[in-house]
Every structure is written in C-alpha cells, then in structure tokens.
Specification:
Elements: E1 6-8, E2 14-16, H1 21-31, E3 33-38, H2 40-44, H3 48-56, E4 58-61, H4 64-72, H5 83-95, E5 100-105, H6 108-121, E6 126-131, H7 138-151, E7 155-159, H8 164-175, E8 179-182, H9 186-190, H10 199-203, H11 207-214, H12 219-233
Parallel strand pairs: 3-4, 3-8, 5-6, 5-7, 7-8
Antiparallel strand pairs: 1-2
C-alpha cells in the first residue's frame, strides 16, 4: 500500500494527505481506526482536547482550507474529501465485499430513514444494528459498547457532533477494532432533512459561500476562514 504523508501544522495538528477516496479507504481498511474530519476551523481553533483527538486518530482533509494548508506543505496530490461523501463511498465499496455496519446518531426517525434508504441504495449492505444518538446515561453507553463488541461490525458510523462522537468512538475502539467515522449531521443530509449546497457550489469549493448566502448569521465563522486562508498564504499554518 502507498505510504501516505502526514503533515504536522504549526499548531501541532496532524493531517494525512490522502489523494483520493480509494486511498483513504485502503488506509483505514488496513490499519483500522477512527477517521476524523479536519477543516480550517478545526485547525485554527484547535484546543488541547481536539488536537489530541485528531492526532491520536486518522485526520483527513474534509474542507478546502485543510487541502490548501496541505498543499502549502508540499502535498500537491491532497484532495478534499467531505465526510458526508466519504461515508457513502465506504458503504459502496465495503458492502460489496460483505462487510458489516453499525450506525449511531441523530433522532430516531432520521436514523430509521437512513437505514431504510441505505438498504435501497446499496442492496448488499449488511447493517447489524443501529440506534439514535441520544445516549443519556453511562449505562446506555456501556450497553452500546457491549453490543458493538458482541456484533463485531466491520464499520461503525457515529453521527453525534464533535468531540462527543470521537470520544465515544475511542471508547469503542479500545474494545473492538473496526473502521470508525464521525459524521456530524450527515444522516440528516442523506435523508434530505438538511439541504447541502448544490453540486456546482461544491465542485467549485464554494460550499462555504452557499451556506453564507442561505444563513447570513454564519458571517463570523466565515471571517475565520478568510483569516485562515491568509495565514496559509503567509506560511503560518
């Protein structure tokens, strides 16, 4: 398997420079572990906790800001791999190989719709279990981890938001080696409960601009993106 370069940014955040969806799926299939999405905001506002989560696991470039930072460090083949696309690439490829899946996250009606839609879109998919993302007690969490250990899924998707989803996946990984990916709101996007930017905006790396048009209150977050890109240009990331 091809060696994948791992860049350490100046604030200590580490990100792998994957050049395609196939590369990242090959990598995590071989090593097992937790895929953690990295974007400009996560790099710029890294805390000791979030930096540790990223660096203990497999950070990948979820946003164009992270890609630009990787390219500035000489990784010319690095590409953007949105998590809301990556998980479906994983399903598409590994379902055909007979791998099993477990899904956690979102509201009950959304996770129900997600499972139903996956079975239509990917007839070979083997979903061995799923549940909503509202884990209210330690007893519930331990019961979930026990079920993961018992059912031994090859892939576990957790859509609960960061860093909650990553901390849960780390506890699971200690008990059961698998491919794990945190998905944030991807189940809601997949089932149409949340609208993603149209393809043209995504293909031209303008998804952030579309979100700003639809939700002007995001302006403060987008100012941070502009600041980040300026720092990249100056070689300070």
């Amino acid at each position: 398997m091809k060696d994948i370069q791992r860049v350490t940014f100046k604030n200590g955040v580490k990100c792998y420079a994957f050049g395609s969806f196939d590369e990242i799926i090959d990598f995590v299939s071989d090593k097992k572990g937790i895929l953690v999405a990295i974007n400009a905001e996560k790099i710029l506002h890294a805390t000791d906790q979030t930096r540790g989560i990223i660096n203990r696991n497999i950070g990948y470039s979820d946003g164009i800001g992270a890609v630009m930072a990787l390219k500035k460090h000489g990784c010319k083949d690095a590409v953007k791999m949105p998590g809301c696309e990556l998980w479906l690439k994983i399903v598409e490829r590994l379902a055909s190989q007979g791998k099993s899946f477990y899904l956690i996250g979102s509201k009950l009606e959304v996770i129900d719709e997600t499972v139903t839609k996956l079975k239509v879109d990917y007839p070979d998919v083997n979903i061995v279990g799923y549940r909503n993302g509202y884990i209210k007690t330690d007893e519930e969490k331990q019961a979930l981890i026990t079920e993961i250990v018992d059912k031994k899924p090859d892939v576990v998707f957790v859509a609960m938001g960061s860093p909650k989803q990553e901390l849960l996946m780390e506890e699971m990984l200690e008990r059961h080696a698998a491919i794990y990916q945190g998905l944030g709101g991807s189940f809601d996007v997949y089932t149409g409960h949340v609208e993603r930017a149209p393809k043209w905006w995504v293909d031209h790396n303008l998804e952030f601009a579309y979100r700003l048009v639809k939700q002007p209150s995001r302006i403060k977050r987008q100012i941070h993106l502009v600041r980040f890109l300026a720092l990249v240009k100056l070689g300070r990331v």
